[in-house]
Design brief:
Elements: H1 7-30, E1 36-42, H2 59-63, H3 67-77, H4 79-85, E2 89-91, E3 94-95, H5 101-110, H6 114-117, H7 145-151, E4 155-159, H8 174-177, E5 180-182, E6 191-193, E7 203-206, H9 217-231, E8 233-236, E9 239-242, E10 249-255, E11 262-264, H10 266-269, H11 281-288, E12 304-306, E13 312-314, H12 318-329, H13 334-365, E14 373-379, E15 384-385, E16 391-392, H14 398-401, E17 402-403, E18 405-408, E19 418-420, E20 424-425, H15 429-437, H16 452-456, E21 466-470, E22 472-480, E23 483-488, E24 494-499, H17 517-531
Parallel strand pairs: 1-10, 1-14, 2-19, 3-20, 4-5, 4-10, 7-11
Antiparallel strand pairs: 2-18, 3-17, 6-7, 8-9, 12-13, 14-18, 15-16, 21-22, 22-23, 23-24
Helix pairs in contact: 4-13, 9-13, 12-13
Length: about 525
């Protein structure tokens, strides 16, 4: 005979089962939707705008020593980067894996250090999967970040420069990394070269006096992605992108400016009048005198030299070409005016990139994805604008290695607008994005660190070293804490050592000083240990 439950016990059991069932359904409903990522890559963007201009030793402080003027210039140059900074954390001490487009982007997108792949220079524009080191295509089978996310269920789409020479489907790694790829064209009109631009460089105005930045190539690309976010669909000529329903996305937009040539529309050039700039002979002399303590191998990377008496003099460099060309136009002060004109066009090119960021932010904020999308903005390397009499990148000094890095995670509102000064690397982005999306890492040699702890607490202790490589796998910069060491590795290595807290502009080389010997040996030991991993 079946045992009958008392009525109260039966009702209690029924209520418990109902509550458990309701809780299970609620838990399923409340589970967070799979997260999205909007990645913005900017080429050759120096850390001079947004929050960076307030950092000690920042180049913009030399050009605009008056803080009020400098703030107004920053507001004109990067208002949208400032807007993005308010949404997340700005990493003021972030560094590239290599100070050139090709190796930096390949390392970031694969998580593989240049000292391991051997891809340490632009390698003549060689596609990273085709590059060979010691007879092996070291990156041919590497899994890229978008490729990994695509395998894990994310829709991946891109336009613009993400990989080096990404202007074609294959060289954008379209076959493996992206569900959809397109190259959106744009132009404001004919280009008019500035008379102060030497043959080795190129800058000027794009379009006529009435043209605006909205017509430019980069802005067209940003508008294409912004429209996709706003409407879930974007069309350019015969290319149509559609955001799939019920599928998370990883979307990347590459912005080419401020890469050479520095051509901008008149509306942006007008924002940076040269008469505001404090470019003087004294500043040029100060940069020239920076040669007195450099090792011999460093001179191949800059416009500095030593005469027969061992005194600092001007050598050869594209920046020196600016000075010489300007003097031919105006013997009295044409060299300084040429420097100013270059800066005017570079700053206007930075403003182009900023307006693209603004359009992307507008698109995301107008979409349904705004609260569920992390924005990651990076520049592939830094840029010299006259420091050590050098123009462009290709050095292991901070001006080349220090990059823009801003991460805006809507799930970390307590740190929105904060600054992180810890040394970090662009190699950290692969594990950071994968950690944020909870997808694990592919089985390959990824050495970066997940930056989530710094997104939660930007001032926490962070002891991980940062390494940048250029030319040779054994020529490296290592940074840990306040100190930075450069080793030029030839048959007889040469060194530079800097205390960046006391000397952020790297004027005083401490290598060889007895009182800093232990610090140098400490960094060398860490460097060799890291390279052996």
């Amino acid at each position: 005979m079946l045992k009958t439950l008392p009525l109260i016990a039966f009702l209690s059991l029924l209520l418990t089962n109902t509550i458990d069932s309701t809780r299970s359904i609620a838990q399923q409903t409340a589970a967070p939707a799979r997260h999205n990522v909007l990645m913005i890559a900017v080429d050759d963007l120096k850390t001079i705008g947004t929050l960076y201009q307030a950092e000690a030793g920042n180049f913009l402080q030399r050009v605009y020593p008056d803080p009020d003027v400098r703030q107004r210039v920053t507001d004109r140059m990067t208002p949208n980067l400032t807007r993005l900074a308010a949404r997340g954390v700005t990493f003021t001490n972030a560094h590239c894996a290599a100070p050139a487009c090709n190796p930096s982007r390949a390392a970031l997108m694969t998580g593989i250090r240049p000292s391991d792949s051997g891809l340490t220079t632009n390698a003549g524009g060689k596609f990273f999967r085709d590059f060979q080191y010691k007879g092996k295509a070291t990156l041919s089978n590497a899994t890229t970040l978008p490729q990994w996310l695509r395998k894990r269920g994310w829709y991946t789409a891109t336009t613009g420069k993400i990989f080096h020479n990404g202007g074609s489907y294959r060289h954008a790694d379209g076959e493996l990394s992206w569900d959809q790829w397109t190259n959106v064209p744009g132009s404001a009109g004919a280009k008019v070269r500035d008379p102060y631009s030497p043959k080795s460089l190129d800058w000027g105005r794009e379009g006529d006096g009435d043209s605006t930045f909205h017509q430019l190539n980069d802005y067209r690309k940003a508008d294409f992605i912004a429209t996709l976010l706003e409407k879930g669909r974007s069309v350019d000529r015969e290319t149509e992108f559609i955001l799939p329903e019920n599928q998370p996305f990883f979307i990347a937009c590459g912005i080419f400016r401020p890469h050479l040539p520095f051509y901008a529309t008149q509306d942006l050039l007008d924002l940076f009048p040269t008469d505001e700039m404090a470019i003087t002979q004294g500043l040029l002399d100060e940069f020239t005198n920076d040669a007195d303590d450099l090792p011999s191998l460093a001179f191949r990377w800059c416009g500095l030299s030593l005469n027969e008496q061992g005194h600092p003099v001007i050598g050869k460099d594209r920046f020196v070409d600016i000075l010489n060309h300007g003097r031919r136009i105006n013997k009295e002060n044409g060299h300084l005016l040429g420097w100013k004109r270059m800066l005017q066009h570079y700053f206007a090119s930075c403003a182009i990139a900023d307006r693209c960021v603004g359009r992307l932010l507008d698109g995301l904020e107008a979409s349904q994805w705004n609260s569920n999308t992390t924005i990651v903005l990076w520049s592939d390397h830094g840029y010299h604008l006259g420091e050590k009499l050098h123009e462009t990148r290709f050095t292991l000094w901070d001006d080349s290695t220090n990059v823009n890095l801003l991460i805006a995670d809507p799930q970390q509102p307590d740190t929105h607008g904060d600054v992180c000064n810890a040394p970090v690397s662009l190699l950290d982005l692969f594990p950071t994005v994968c950690g944020r999306l909870q997808v694990g890492l592919p089985e390959q040699h990824i050495l970066g660190n997940d930056l989530l702890p710094l997104l939660v607490n930007p001032t926490r202790s962070w002891s991980h070293p940062v390494i940048t490589t250029y030319e040779s796998v054994r020529s490296n910069m290592i940074m840990q804490g306040d100190f930075k060491l450069i080793r030029y590795d030839e048959e007889e290595p040469e060194y530079e050592l800097y205390d960046l807290k006391k000397d952020p502009q790297e004027f005083e080389n401490l290598a060889g000083r007895v009182e800093y010997q232990n610090q140098a040996l400490h960094l060398l030991k860490i460097l060799d240990g890291e390279l052996a991993r």
